[in-house]
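Readers of this paper often ask what the protein records in our data store actually look like. Such a record has a labelled line for the sequence and another for the backbone structure tokens. Nothing more is needed to write down the fold, since each code stands for a local backbone conformation. The remainder of this section carries one protein's record, kept here as part of the documentation.
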Amino acid sequence: MTAIRQNRNTRPRGFMTWNPRPDTQELLSQIKGILDEYSNYLPMTIRQIFYRLVGAHGYAKDEKAYSRLCECLNKARRAGVIPFAHIRDDGFSELQENYFSSPQSFIKTVRHAAENYQRDPQTVQPVRLFVWCEAAGMANQLAQVSQPYGVPVLSSGGFDSVTVKYDLARKFSEYEAVQVFHVGDHDPSGIHIFSSLEEDVKAFMVESETDIEFTRLAVTPAHIEQYSLPTAPAKATDNRRFIGQTVQCEALPPDILCGILDEALKECIDQAARNELIVKETAEHQRLMQWRTSSFQAQS
């Protein structure tokens, strides 16, 4: 790795050399401890790390302290002190067709697909489940819990467009019963995002016979009390109806949040039907492996 020397008057670009001050070294040590503690839930968002610092190390809970943390993690990743893969940032998406470099690469892809064959676990379940995550940066983390059940995680950035909610209504209408679990902040925006989502989607499904239910999974007032989450008053300029103190979703430790989601999904899952599907899936996988062996041997 080649580091580029930075002018002190400019922000760092690319990789960099960095000699943090003693107080920053202490902060880095605390950050590394948090990343080690939650290694099973990586990558973490910066805001999740921020709330772990607040809860476990008495880190200041204000915008100045958060900005300091962002700057520290920016330099730490550029300097190779903390792996880029351990921190999740929002704001980037890529749309691209699937291409192959040769027939051999296509065959390799098909072989890999056969090796990883899985049935859709939800096809045998009485209710189609979805998880809606307000913070896109936490979607991958929640997906680690939901994917074994075949449950997709949908993410959003604030108040979603009318087109998004219309498309969701059409998608949900394909099923007899739908349960949507919502994960978001406990503040005026988070509460109104949830109510807007529920009301708009249901209104678009007025002609649908789908039995649909929306559940506010986290953060709830009960979580705030149970886990002693750090709170803040609602903004004085926000006139929307809201009672109590605000709490960001990232204030819930990753293991607790994932545990809440796992418990909610298990309560909806017909385990007997799931086990029966796994037996069928195993037999089908074995047949695919036999087909793969016989088919691709002819290619070699």
